[in-house]
Amino acid sequence: MSMLQFISKWVQAKNKKSDHSDSPQGSPQAPGALTLQNVQEEFKDCSDLTHYTMPELQADLLFFAHQLDAQAYERDVLRPLLNIKREELEQLLRRSQFIAAEDAVQTVHGILNGYVALFLPQGVYLVDAYGPEKRSIEQSESESAINGPHDAFNESLGTNLGLIRSRLKSNRLKVLQYTAGELSKTKICVLYIDGIADMEYVREMEERIKAIEFSSLYDGTMLTQLIDDFPNALFPLFQTSERTDIAVSKLNEGKLVLIEEHSPSVIIAPSSFFEFFTTPDDYYNRWVVGSALRVLRYIAFLITICLTPLYVAITTYHYEMIPENLLISLTESRSRVPFPPIIEALLMEGTIEMLREAGARLPTKIGQTIGIVGGIVIGTAAVQAGFTSNILIISVAMSAIASFVVPSYIMSGSLRLVRFGLLILSGMLGNFGFCAGIALIIIHLAKLTSLGAPYTIPAAPVKLRDWNDIFIRGPFWALNRRPSQTRSTNVSLNKMKK
Amino acid sequence: MAQEKLHRFSIAMLIFNTQAGVVQFTLPRTIATYFGTNGWIILILVYLIVALNIMLINAVYRLGKGKSLFDILQGGLPRFMLIPVYLAVGSLFALIGCLVVKQYVLIYQMIIFPSTSDLMLKIFVDILIFLFVTKGIYNMSKANLLMVFILLAIVPSGFMMLGDFDLLRLSPYVFKEGRDWLKGFASVYAAFMGYELSILLFPYAEKNNKWLKYVHLGNSISLLIYLFVALLCYGFFNYHELKYLSFPMLDMFGYMQFPFVERIQNFIFSLFLFSIIVTSGMYFWSSQQMYSAVLPKAPWKLLLFLIMTLAIGVSYIPKSLIIVEQWFDVLSLFEIGAAIGLPLLALLAILIQKGRSKRHAS
Amino acid sequence: MHRRVRIGVLVLIFLTIATGCSKDNNILERAGYVRTVGFDAEKGDMIRVTVNIPIIIAEASETQQQEEIFSKIVRSSKEARILMQRKTSRKMVSGQINTILFNEELSRRGLWSHMDTLLRDFTISKRTEIAVVEGAARDIIETHLPGHSRTNQYIDRLLKKEFENQTLPHVLLHHFCRDYFDEGRDPITPVLTRSDKDLEVNGIALFKKDRMVGKLSASDIFYFSIMYHDQNRGEFTLGLNRPELYSISFHAINNSTRKTISKTPEGKYRVEIKIDIHGGITEYIGNLKMSTSERAELEQILSRHIEEECNRIVKKMQQLGVDSIGIGQHIRNKVSYKEWRAFYKDNYIQDMDIVVHTSFKVKNFGNFFY
After folding, report:
1. Residue B118 is part of a domain; what is its CATH number?
2. Which residues of B touch C (CB under 8 A)?
3. Which residues pair with A177 in a beta bridge?
4. Which of A53, A193, A456, C186 is least surrounded, with the fewest CB atoms within 10 Å of its CB?
5. Interchain contact, B124 vs C20, CB within 8 Å
């Protein structure tokens, strides 16, 4: 099925707003009675299904070997069964790992989820031995850390939960589990700290996850788009991260953390626009340095969306804004360029975007070559050939670098797109177009909400007490309150109300 | 989720940004022309009168127990009497909303884009305003906050002018060589216009009386900004020269110099688009509120669209800045009437209702 | 409905953008931005306008700086612009004018009619330097002086540097207009002149309203400046033919000037200008010892001398009837409005007693302890 069909199906489903249950009786068509034959029939042509027989016990085992953890299988299934006699079987089955299956549907579902189905004359039992192959805990590629913990989430739900549990030793950390995706049956865990997180958000999130109608989910970043408030929003409405310290700190602030099975990106909800410009590194530096870094990031944000558009606006319409010291060199470099500034800028910005995209898809070694070819060879040659002015090259390069200063890759993508919009508007109407573009962005931003909470908090609506952890990174004694976006009843960060 | 209430600080900023606008660029000249030497003092007087008017509006809120203006009016007065009032005030608001844009665009055309069609620029701004207003008052207030922050960031640059500021040029005389004080008073009063829209915010504000003070806060910020601009102009230029400068503030920004950019007046004036969007947006929103009270069944976005389309048509009539300013002079008189008349009418309605309920009780 | 509105709006925006590219573009390299404008008096009421437009020519991969210079005899500067527009390959724009030169004859005729265009045009910066030139402005703009940077840059940098070092009162178009409009002060401009292969700041032109009525020589600039405003840097040198003071030079001049107004029994205003000056000696040829109490003697001599010079300049201004140092403003701030109206008339400065008192203090005398 093509992606387009996926989407159209999803849209239709969403419009219908049919209540979708996540019960295990979901997709496998209800088979007949609970017999080995029937279940085997369900898995017809599934050559990877293992059928293991134990004639002495009249037992049949059905399972997917690759879904199992070999140790658990041996400990919980194989060894107990091999070491007993037929008479002792009754007693053995009373062990807690043996769950009696009620019908064929549950059995099929269990097998799919990494259970071993044990067919006995007494009945059918399911044993959990789930433990597929997984990546070990590694550093995050997309969010590398200089300071702070280096273990990042990986694709295993259990590992991810473990990483968080081991950092928050509190029974208040609650985990709600849902499944979504018609085919993928992806597990989604909603984590929150009881007493800190606002239950309104938990309920809202639950509703949204239950409302998902999508055939299969691949990543947390995709899930954000299925649960967000405005599907047409330009900016990501939920922060995603692979770093454990971010997830834990956000839980502590009173936000929800969503972990999707098979995805290293956890989702933090609700998020604010300004949170996308913070990193945990800010907290590991001295607060003055941390604050300076934040300011630097906001400057980078301004540069990445404004610099090239302003270059275009000024060189096209507002030549009088150029100070005389720059005028000659700017005119000189522009004088050999045959296109108007807007075309020139779109060309160069387009090239940089292509370079970035090419570099992102290629192995590191080739990626470097691309960088050199693109950056140095094309750049120099373009200027020498009179294709672009060297000041534009500087501006384009600066805004490209600045776009990578923004910690969130998804946000940086949005910002780059915004820049193109502003570029076109500036080329059309100069400063007027530029300001109109900014106004458009502001109007758009003001409309957005993240899980129902205002997206531009704490700037709009103004929450002054949050400013010391958003625009700067205040000293820890000043950071004693949870952000107001969380609407937490436990406002004080350090002494929790019981 | 339930409709969130407007935070009181948001209301203050909304009022401030509705009041402030292009008028800042011309205000020093207006003051100098009508009030002469040290005319900036008139701002404080006008501010006090405006504050009285706001108190009148506050009284309506207190006595009306937070009900919306329309509920209050309809509680005491017959609907057939109110409909002409709604229509008249609604049209007035729409006209002001659209002339604000027209004025801005004409100035823009004059100083930056002499041969670009003003209609095109105006439609461009109108689209932004339509998008702005259709987001609803709560989101408007949020967008307004972001815009106000950007606009207020310009204020510190005013301190760069202090080097060329000289108290000597202020002269010790007060209101000498002015003329037409009454006309001047109306013009300065019009600069503070925008606070009267707070009467429509009743149902959207927090349900306590605290926010009423914040209307005064918004008004005070406007005063401070106006005072700052006017004082700076009086000391940077002088009152005689001010009379001859179309846009003293632009000249002042033009005088500023930064290492990598100079003559930022174009940019600053473009930034004031934010202020225009809010000012005009608030007036269109109020106009739509009025019309919605007449036609409660009509979808409000459609109504807004119709109002704005009609307003664009009307705004096509005045072709030059001078004529727009003449229209403004007339409209601002009506607007002053509305600012005082609406709360008085509401108070009357409350009185009638009280009298009626007393009669019922006895 | 909701979605349709949104789509409609997007379409509208797109249409506006598609049709809405402004025609008012001044793409940098296609604009010929005028840097220097000169106005000369011609026969009748005509003027000669000379402009200098630096242009950059791209040939293959080389770029070359050139200047386009046009000169026309016209009635007004915008007429000149229209005539010159026919000659240049660029779109002539005036947003980057940084120097405006008037020749002396024109200045004596009155500048206001030419100022109109400078003030009406939004693109002209109030930061533009203006200067009166002795001789023809055209001459200065048209000739490339060997050994100097291009003339437009040369004039601009020369004046900027002088302003920066406070060896010349900081006068730009803004200050000129401001003083023109204000009561109790008359505008001034620097005077430029061509001496051989160089340009030279050669004094200060004193204006009465918009008409130049007199000129202070280059050696008077210092005395004028200390009366004109407070300085915090600047240099100054003087020589007297006496053994104590053959020649002396100062740097880091720092002065504060106070003007006190009082009324004499006859009803005249008496203005006392008190100037405290501090400066560091950089050179001294004379027979006094700086390191001893003889320094006070030197300070005395200097104070006297500066006082005399200042008084001389004040006399000159009174003779010309111009109030270039803004004494009128000080009076205005002292008296009632009625009194001011009665007093403020043409040549009011002539009805005043103006006395200058100076006290000079040597701040340091450099590395040579003698």
Report:
1. 1.20.1740.10
2. 110-116, 120, 123-124, 127, 130-131, 134, 164, 168-169, 171-173, 176, 237-238, 240-241, 244, 250-251, 254-255, 257, 262-263, 299, 301, 305
3. A189
4. A53
5. yes
